[in-house]
Amino acid sequence: MEIAQAIRNDSHLPAWSTEAFEAQLRDKGRAYHIHHPFNVRMNAGGCTPDEIRCWVANRFYYQICIPRKDAAILANMPDRAHRRLWLERILDHDGHGDYEGSAAGGIEAWTRLGEAVGISREDLWSLQGVVPAVRFACDAYVNFAAKAPWQEAVCSSLTEMFAPQIHKDRLATWPTHYPWIESDGLAYFRNRIPLATRDVKHGLQVTLAHFQTRQAQHHALDILQFKLDILWTMLDAIEKACQ
Fold it and tell me: What is the DSSP string of 143-195?
């Protein structure tokens, strides 16, 4: 608490430089759920098939909430150029065209992951395996995106800065630790690495331009922490559901 108060006491100072502000945002990666004990255990091969299935089923609810969150942000964007860029995120998850191959989208790729770990499409889409705390956390995020100023909602998406590594870790460890999972089911992780990198570029552009005072920059860090807390809370709930 004393450290946090000391940080807050600098709010009267000039804004951080763009480079220093970005460094502060990236430093939030220390609270990313890549460090959650359940994720660490999962990537170390310590999860049972039932635990993997529990994780996949619950994270699916997050996947289907992402385009709803992005649509809420899009609705609040007054600028056409930003809307055109943000629209890509919705198509990335909902898919487009014939919903085949690279056009299928992230939700279909996650459905394939579910099938690869032994969850039928019908069971996954029924959402019966989703625990209440995961629903609550995801719904809270969608609600925040709908009601917050669009720049703040964009800032919350910057957890994507840390996502490529978590996907790379799964691709590196799962084939060894969980050979029973069909390899083509891991396509979601492969696909998200370049997409997350692209999304971060736009999200950072908006955030660095919008939060122009030291106090506003602290607010941005709080927003990013809020999103990090959602992801961490989801794993807390999933870990408990697996016990």
Answer: HHHHHS-HHHHHHHGGGGGTHHHHHHHHHHHHHHH-TTS-GGGGHHHHHHHHH
Q: For residue range 143-199, what is the model confidence (pLDDT) as tens digits?
A: 999 999 999 999 999 999 999 999 999 999 999 999 999 999 999 999 999 999 999
d(CA 167, CA 207): 24
pLDDT in tens, 82-116: 999 999 999 999 998 776 676 889 999 999 999 99
Rounded Cα distance, 157 and 137, in Å: 15
* Cα 31 from Cα 143, distance rounded (Å): 22
| Closest-CA residue to 237 (of 43, 36, 50) | 36
Find the radius of gyration of the CA atoms of the chain: 18
pLDDT tens-place string over residues 5-39: 445 678 789 999 999 999 999 999 999 999 999 99
Amino acid 44 reads A
Lookup: tokens for 217: 């920059």
Q: Are the C-beta atoms of residues 203 and 155 closer than 8 Å to each other?
A: yes
- Whether the Cβ atoms of residue 156 and residue 223 lie closer than 8 Å to each other: yes
